UniProtKB/TrEMBL annotation:
Pfam family, one: Sulfatase
Matching PANTHER family: ARYLSULFATASE FAMILY MEMBER, ENDO-4-O-SULFATASE
Gene source species: Ktedonobacter racemifer DSM 44963
Name the UniProt record assigns to this protein: Sulfatase
Keyword Cell inner membrane: no
């Protein structure tokens, strides 16, 4: 019925990083995503292009960096795809796919412009309390869809979960300590951290259960074998020194791919670096569609099939706006991380919802000192927690120079607007529109002394 093209299911969730059982976190209850990893291929070193929701998701959907697709901050604060940008849904629709969106989208303020022919279960997840979790609502909607008539066209289905975003108690979800609690080593090893991580584990268990329901529905509809299923987290954990930073805890993500009919091995772990920028070109190649020249990612389909492929030597990531303007760029190689900061700010940006958590509240001073360094250089083999900044050390001068050169070259090749000066926010543009409107309305109005 679908001309031999695979059905494509892209599943994402917020704020997960790699905090799953299949990534070695034994205290997390994630049997369904662990099952997906056993049945497919898990990427051990997958990274996002930005450590915040909207910019990362926009890169996943367009195969382009945030400073190229326009989403350099959160979409609900005014950032949006440039008018000429195409979302994956629009591209797949052009090639005969029937396109569906379940759950949230966070790359535009107008979901109808993305190219989805059908919009389902548009939950935002805000509210918390006793309402049903968005994960349950979304999974039920997907199950009902899959239990319906067999599709007459190949499907492109995007399923986006709000969980495990804060707060963690949607629908009365409780903290999970059933298998203990593991506190990542970049966080302080204190009771407050155990409390916060236990709540996160409960939310992860909830979204994993919802994903399990969807996987079961795919089996029951006899679609699993010929469906390309891609699971991606959008960025790192919602914890201090993770989300909103370019350290590995901020940009390392879970990525699992299953496609039995497409020759993707089961139970394989890929250790080569990939970027979420690479997902769209991989989907296009799997669907036997041309990859447009403006797509900046690299298809990893050959890597998935364990065939000769073009390996990434480095990944690039950026941050521009989240809670405030804090532009930075980084290059990560197999061994080194090089970060260039463009403004003086707090040493670590901790978003407002994370500031309300017990870890931050236990000692805000850990994160609110002024950032001193413009350049950061870390040897990831000797210093995986990225705590010993080697920038300026004579013994790594050649390495620092080379990484600096490659980072500037990437910025030039991608026409990074930072090269032209500070980036203005949507709020600034709104203010200037008000200024222009006032000027056009005329001068000389007497408003008194």
């Amino acid at each position: 019925m679908n001309g031999g093209k695979p059905h494509i299911f892209v599943v994402t969730c917020h704020d997960l990083g790699q905090h799953l059982g299949c990534y070695g976190v034994e205290s997390v209850q994630s049997p369904n995503l662990d099952r997906l990893a056993v049945e497919g291929t898990r990427f051990d070193r997958a990274f996002c292009t930005a450590p915040q929701c909207s910019p990362s998701r926009a890169s996943l959907a367009t195969g382009r960096y945030a400073h190229n697709n326009g989403v350099m901050g959160l979409s609900h604060l005014g950032w949006d795809l440039y008018p000429e940008e195409k979302h994956a849904a629009a591209r797949m629709a052009e090639h005969g796919y029937e396109t569906h969106l379940f759950g949230l989208q966070h790359v535009t303020q107008n979901a109808h412009r993305l190219g989805f022919q059908y919009l389902h279960a548009q939950g935002t997840g805000h509210g918390g309390g006793t309402e049903s979790s968005t994960a349950r609502k979304v999974s039920v909607a997907v199950e009902e869809f899959l239990h319906g008539p067999q599709p007459q066209s190949p499907l492109y289905v995007e399923i986006n979960f709000f969980e495990p975003h804060r707060p963690y108690d949607f629908g009365g979800v409780e903290a999970d300590t059933s298998a203990g609690v593991w506190v990542p080593p970049y966080l302080p090893q204190i009771p407050e951290a155990r409390e916060e991580m236990a709540a996160l584990q409960g939310a992860i268990r909830e979204v994993d259960h919802a994903i399990g329901c969807i996987l079961d529905a795919l089996d029951q509809a006899d679609l699993s074998h010929r469906s390309l299923v891609i699971f991606n987290a959008d960025h790192g954990l919602p914890m201090p020194r993770a989300k909103c930073t370019l350290y590995d805890p901020g940009i390392s993500i879970a990525q699992i791919v299953r496609w039995p009919e497409g020759g993707v091995p089961a139970g394989r772990v890929v250790t080569e670096m990939v970027s979420n920028l690479d997902v769209l070109p991989t989907i296009l190649e799997a669907a036997r569609c041309p990859i447009p020249v403006e797509v900046q990612g690299i298809s990893f389909l050959a890597l998935l099939r364990n065939e000769p492929h073009r390996a990434r030597k480095e990944i690039y990531a950026e941050k521009n706006f989240h809670s405030y303007y804090d532009p930075m760029r980084c290059i990560r190689t197999e061994r080194f991380k090089y970060i260039r900061n463009f403004e003086v700010n707090f040493s670590i940006e901790v978003p407002g919802d994370i500031q309300q958590g017990p870890i931050f509240c236990s000692d805000p001073g850990r994160y609110t000192s002024q950032r001193q360094q413009l350049i950061e250089l870390y040897d990831l083999s000797a210093d995986p927690l990225e705590q010993d900044n080697l920038a300026g050390h004579p013994e790594v001068a050649d390495i620092q120079w080379e990484l600096d050169r490659r980072l500037w070259s990437w910025m030039e090749e991608t026409q990074d607007p930072l090269l032209q000066g500070p980036i203005a926010s949507p709020r600034y543009h709104m203010a200037m529109q008000g200024h222009l409107a006032t000027r056009q309305a005329g001068n000389g109005i007497d408003v008194g002394p």
